[in-house]
Design brief:
single chain, 278 residues, alpha/beta, 7-stranded mixed sheet, 11 helices, 7 strands, globular
Length: 278
């Protein structure tokens, strides 16, 4: 696929997420326009205690599909890198885990998200967190410099996933680990996979779980596994597909949703994927 096509997809995703973070009623990725922002954080598995300890703007602008730090082994002093860090909910949680001796880096390509993350970092009073502008296929991060790579429903948005997997392997220290939450899908019909407006909703760009795990192995990572899996039902698929494909992100029920949701139920899932660099 031409590089210009990849760049166009990235620009489209960035525009949709900038809109989502600026408009109170907008949804994106694993949320729908009918799901109030902030509810998504709880649906994704963040505990009441975690949510209560964070700035409201970080919670309200969470568009993830899971909690990549849940049950993780991140420890004080670690360096954590968050791919597609958005408004910063996982940055703030990671910062609390690594403590003052550790460091957390977020990378995002959307200026509005970076601005919101900086606001939330300042509101939380944290000095061990920074955000950098960049794309996850070419990370502005030194090689072999991080202990953990985390990400929350972002890699599926990349039009060049093999490059993302290679970058994860590059930036991890020997023995470093990754733990990401993401969306996978089996055998998407072209009507869905080729739809631009469904790309930002975390569906059109999703690949199969097998391809995802194999991509990480091809990048040189080991101990690759899907640790958790939540398979979506008809109602959840309808939320992904959206309401008559209005410009932006997801919505409610529509003709395309009614047509495909019953056929896709059981074939789309949120997974937590782990791997290690030897």
């Amino acid at each position: 696929m031409p590089q210009s096509t990849h760049d166009d997809k990235r620009k489209s995703v960035s525009k949709d997420y900038a809109r989502a973070v600026k408009e109170p009623s907008a949804g994106c990725c694993c949320s729908s326009k009918t799901t109030p922002k902030g509810v998504v954080a709880k649906l994704a598995g963040y505990s009441d205690e975690e949510v209560a300890a964070l700035p409201a703007e970080a919670v309200v602008n969470s568009f993830g599909c899971g909690n990549p730090l849940a049950f993780s082994e991140v420890k004080p002093g670690d360096v954590v890198l968050d791919l597609g860090s958005g408004a910063g909910i996982d940055l703030l949680l990671a910062a609390k885990k690594v403590g003052r001796t550790g460091r957390v880096i977020g990378v995002d390509m959307t200026d509005a998200m970076l601005d919101k993350a900086r606001e939330n970092i300042a509101a939380a009073g944290l000095e061990n967190v920074e955000v950098r502008k960049g794309i996850i296929e070419n990370l502005p991060v030194e090689s072999a410099s991080v202990d953990w790579v985390i990400s929350n429903c972002v890699i599926n948005l990349s039009p060049e996933k093999s490059k993302v997997f290679a970058e994860i392997a590059r930036v991890l220290k020997p023995g470093g680990r990754m733990l990401v939450s993401d969306i996978v899908a089996e055998a998407l019909p072209e009507e869905i996979a080729g739809n631009r407006q469904l790309y930002s909703s975390c569906l059109a760009g999703a690949i199969s779980e097998a391809a995802y795990l194999e991509g990480l192995r091809q990048a040189g990572l080991t101990d690759v596994e899907a640790r958790e899996r939540l398979v979506y039902d008809v109602e959840q698929i309808e939320a992904f597909i959206g309401s008559e494909l209005q410009p932006g992100c997801c919505g409610g029920k529509g003709s395309l949703a009614s047509k495909w949701a019953p056929l896709l139920a059981g074939k789309v899932a949120s997974v937590k994927v782990a791997a290690r660099k030897s």
